[in-house]
Amino acid sequence: MIFSLQTISAQKLDQFYASFSGPWKTFLQISKYGGFRESIGEKNFRIGIFQEKKLIGVAQFQKINAKRGSYLHTPHGPLIYESYIDEATPAFLAYYKKLGEQEKCDFVRVSPPFSPYTIGLFSSQKFRPAPIHLVNPELSLVLDITKSEATLLKNMRKSTRYEVQRVKRCHIEVKKGNSVKDLDTFWGLHEKTVKRQSFIPFSKDVTATELKVFGNDVQIFSAYKDGNAGASSVILFDSHAGYYHQGASEKSSCPFSYATLWAAILEAKKRGCREFNFWGVSEKNAKKHPWYGLSQFKRGFGGEERRFLHVQDHPLTMKYWLNFGVECYRKWSRNY
Questions:
Q1: What is the span of the domain harbouring residue 237?
Q2: pTM of model > 0.90
Q3: Same domain flag for 178 and 299
């Protein structure tokens, strides 16, 4: 088969995304996400993959300029109809490498929405595993929310179901919105969480930009008791799923965090979403991983694990190896 690749509109990208039924699609391949990346100063590309005149795949990716090197990054893409993956993926990767050279990048990177069994598609194009795996989640937890509310509760871990049912008894109220006031509530809790857990956060300005670009498709769910917020979660929505994007909380015996996530799951059902994506989780037995506690919390709600192929890089200049060294050090220092 002969494939052609060309720039497509945001509308065409979103139409393809809405109709695409592959199990690994995420909001990283919708036009609003590309618009958000443009708003923080990155160059965004939207590419269609055609077999003759038929659109059989799409890829949205960004050019990222960093001190350690500039690169193109395709997050959870390309999205290609399953029957074309084996033949169309090499065509995309060849185009992608050439574009990286034209953009004077030091390397190109793909966080593929494929299973680990498709590694041969990348190795044949001389891609190599990236030294770090946290560019985007490689192991996600996804809950089917087409089931009834009663069934979702029944399928939870017993302790999680108890905490969700305790929300009413504790007189916790959950409010949602995406105003400056909602962001301030989240950020106050976020700063306390960062201090308590010692991780590198998003900046407030970046989160504010996200709220502006996504509009009603991003909501902050905050749980209150006696007028005081105990937990807050930033949730993104697309036509397919709700996504647990950021979370923050006080240390408390009250089930504030359970309240915000259960409210978000119910909102996703109300919007007609089929899934709720808890985003990244650690391996079940990785007790030393910094995500272990959070991952245990997420798993209590049920769902299935969805594993992505490891991030793939193709070096274009020698400067890639500087980036390689930096990311190896980060992986070691953060115990990932």
A1: 140-307
A2: yes
A3: yes
